[in-house]
Known about the structure:
By secondary structure, this protein is of the alpha/beta class.
Amino acid sequence: MKDLIEKIQRLRSERNAVILAHNYQPAEIQDLADFTGDSLGLSIQASKTDADLILFCGVRFMAETAAILCPDKVVLLPDLDAGCPMADMITADQLQQLKAQHPEAIVVCYVNSTADVKAESDYCCTSANAIDLVRSLPLDRPIIFVPDQNLGQHTAQQTGRQLILWPGYCRSHVVITEQDIKDARARYPDAVVMVHPECTQPVRQLADHVLSTGQMLRLVKDGAAKTYIVGTETGIIHALKKINPSAHYIPASQRAVCPNMKRITLDKILWALEDMACRISVPVDIAVRARRSLDWMIKGSQVTKGR
Ligand code: SF4
């Protein structure tokens, strides 16, 4: 592994590449990356980088977002099959049909969506800023929220707005059950329970905090708890341990693993850098329209981030 990492480091420097890794990536890839974070944090890093090449360790919609934000840069995703089943649960055609049924509606899409769907949307958000975005929208307009019904439902509950939801979901989060949380609480009665908004409502209701992965990291960094029950993809636990090694982290479910996130390996990273393989690009007409929906996510969220 040491050899492999040295080769990657050498090529990273020769190609003036930045390596971005999502919090759900395998531990060795998080350790290798220049930046780790949630979708919002990584999108902001991509938009600010002066590197010539962005090597994205995550899933396709994340690399597409980087390509839209940085049209002058080469973006590589080391495994082109690393997709997001939730993003694929709605197509641009389906969204167009939904818009036709609600012609007055503002369309908000979760960043976990294809570039085509972003191009059909008015605003794009992440789990870290969906509530801020919906609060900022005019009260006299209906709002369509796609594709994640769980994040949409959570956002509706927190804002008091009625959202028109799409029945998408993340398989890696809906496997976490109410019983998982009850069992974990029984075993660790003093633990703080934090879950991701992609979890189902009964699970969210049992949690102390409903947070994006970036918000979980901030909570743990500042927190005094000794034990945290973590209701999201288990890869986050590596990042949590790095930020606060003295606490204990218990996965709410060992089944909360995203197989697509785990497709990225050190071998594939090296191969992508050597061959400049697995390039992600977005057609210009789609990218221009999708960029408009991403603008609030990048600029607006930096204004509201401190709240
Ligand atoms: S964890 Fe869920 S939402 Fe995230 S990439 Fe995997 S399938 Fe998609």
